[in-house]
Amino acid sequence: MGSMFRSEEVALVQLFLPTAAAYTCVSQLGELGLVEFRDLNASVSAFQRRFVTDVRRCEELEKIFTFLQEEVRRAGLVLPRPEGVVPAPPPRDLLRIQEETDRLAQELRDVRGNQQTLRAQLHQLQLHSAVLGQSHVPPLAATDIEGSSEWTPLLQAPGGPHQDLRVNFVAGAVEPHKAAALERLLWRACRGFLIASFRETEQQLEDPVTGEPATWMTFLISYWGEQIGQKIRKITDCFHCHVFPFAEQEEARRGALQQLQQQSHELLEVLGETERFLSQVLGRVQRLLPPWQVQIRKMMAVYLALNQCSVSATHKCLIAEAWCAARDLPTLQQALQDSSSEAGVSAVVHRIACQDMPPTLIRTNRFTASFQGIVDAYGVGRYQEVNPAPYTIITFPFLFAVMFGDVGHGLLMFLFALAMVLVENRPAVKTAKNEIWRTFFGGRYLLLLMGLFSVYTGFIYNECFSRATVIFHSGWNVTAMANLSDWSDAFLAQHPLLALDPNVTGVFRGPYPFGIDPVWSLAVNHLSFLNSFKMKMSVILGVIHMAFGVVLGVFNHLHFAQPYRLLLETLPELVFLLALFGYLVFLIVYKWLCVTAASAASAPSILIHFINMFLFSRSPTNRPLFHGQEVVQSVLVVLALAMVPVLLLGTPLFLCRQHRRHSRKRLAGRQPDEDQTGLLDSPDTTVASWGSDEEKAGCPGDHKEAEFVLSEVFMHQAIHTIEFCLGCISNTASYLRLWALSLAHAQLSEVLWAMVMREGLSMGRKMGVAAVVLVPIFAAFAVLTVAILLVMEGLSAFLHALRLHWVEFQNKFYSGTGYKLSPFTFAMEEE
């Protein structure tokens, strides 16, 4: 947890990897996930790098893997997850994996092609059998039976002009949605010189492409004349009909049908053997493909990392630069020595200096990850900047609970989060694909604390589903008020509302032990009392939260060796904030402690005093809270205003003076000799001892001196001063959202109870069927409670608490202008 308060120390290291062991070393670093490589070949095109050929081979293999994976899914199978940790294969295994993959893919293509061919042949046989098996009425038989005169022109007497014509047949099958159009076009094109019979197949046939059962329309067309036949064939070709031979004799058709059935049976046996062989091939794919996918992904990641390295002048080693946590350097050195031991030359780790800002590394666990995510969503912190996440663990759920305070609602949220925490190790829960569920599951510990704190503030507000609970005895005594007052029957009849006077002896026996006294839930001025309480509580919490943020900036100034900012920035900010709004908090607390019930009627208004403080005036009707209040207020306002020029001009003038002093020192220390001057001006004298390899991989900003521009510094400080001074006013007012959201939540709970549960309970008494009526009433109350008060109100309170942390709290000390350390790791490839 030490690194939670500030990011870890990150060092820039230079790795000298022997060419023979470079792949093994980088592979081992990928397994450990310790370093983030820097691209030393940024100016080189991706197609001109050293290992581009290997990367392309891996990409080609991934394309084949995609084909195999689609074939497995097409067969309705699931690829299992690889067992254990699959290491990156050595480079020599790439050829073996490629050969086996090509052989498997070719086998699968051949078997799949044979299967498709056999299915198409079987489909043709089945269609042909269906055509021959359909009971189409022969046209000539129909002519003999009907004996109608309309058939007479087609059957000429012997010796006529058509005595050589004979009846021909065209039989086949067509898709059902094309049958009507085909029949209509045949009739119109052939002018009625044909007889067509269309029938639907009795059984559905499996489509050879999609595998889904489909119905077909068989047809039998009888015609006279060769020209009519040519037209019919052209039309059936245009409709993509399946045309089959159709014998004129019944016996020939029966023989052909039996032969087709026998061929179909033989084809089914061959198709079954083909499918069994296909299942064997797919089984091998299922067994081999998952580890191959992981291996090739790791191999490609290694080669992409090697492409970021530069080559030494002697071409005997690769030079890499990487960011690594300082505490992981011994582990890094040991891993490289173990990986390069077989090559005979050990890899070397060399820590180098660099002026570039290192990346930010903050290690988290399953509990702190969600809170760190809230902070990182605003912006990743600068290197070794104070991290707000440890404090957010407490302040975020608490501010949420101030707006969401209810024992019942908080308990429901707590139990929901607790259920997710208890099942967090189940594989089915971790691998769930639902995006909403993954969002809730990722923030389960955040929800757990939000619910727990909501229960706590619910006890303070004394609200459980908007109902007050009596845990301790009330501090108010109605009996004493009734005994010591003149409450007669006539007085009670004229006054439906009675007031409890705390000045009467025995009426107010002392404050409630914890939270709000339940007697306030019966009072008509309940809302006015809670408004005053929650408004002042919001101001107090806001000022404390902002002051804490300013104090955290002290640790940044001390860590970055900027002690002048303590006097020129932090101290003026604290004085400005506390002199104005800290004094407001003092007035609130002082009035709570010093104003008694006897003097409550003449108690002064804090708001009027605060306004008069800025106007340097007094109100004759608003008496002071303490002696000398006007003098104290005037001094505090003058002191706060005096801090503005200090905050505006202090830092720019100090930096300008410091810059001039350093410039004079540099001018006084210069020597006339140009060679000596270059050596003295170098910020790092060890550069002269570097070899060619180190110079090639050095940081580009190592020899650049930061330029001081007074106007830019002054402008930046002016913006900061205006933002802070105006922000103190607006941010304090922004914390009043705690009061507003808390009031809205309480009122929504009250309305839901009054319009649903209270109506249901009263309806049950009248009808005498309370048990039956309360079931749907309670169901509606539960659904509305979850949908409106837990989900919608919870989301609203969450967003407002998020804004209070990002804008009002973190901008006092947190810049969020850094970038994360993204180590080279195989964890994503294994997923």
TrEMBL record:
Q: How does it sit in the membrane?
A: Multi-pass membrane protein
* Pfam families per the UniProt record, alphabetical: V_ATPase_I
Q: Name the major location.
A: membrane
List localization entries. Membrane
Q: Indicate the family of this protein.
A: Belongs to the V-ATPase 116 kDa subunit family.
Q: Tell me, what does this protein do in biology?
A: Essential component of the vacuolar proton pump (V-ATPase), a multimeric enzyme that catalyzes the translocation of protons across the membranes. Required for assembly and activity of the V-ATPase.
Indicate what this protein is called per its UniProt record: V-type proton ATPase subunit a
Please report the organism this UniProt entry assigns to the protein. Answer: Ceratotherium simum simum (Southern white rhinoceros)
Q: What is the lineage of its organism?
A: Eukaryota, Metazoa, Chordata, Craniata, Vertebrata
The record's gene field reads LOC101389548
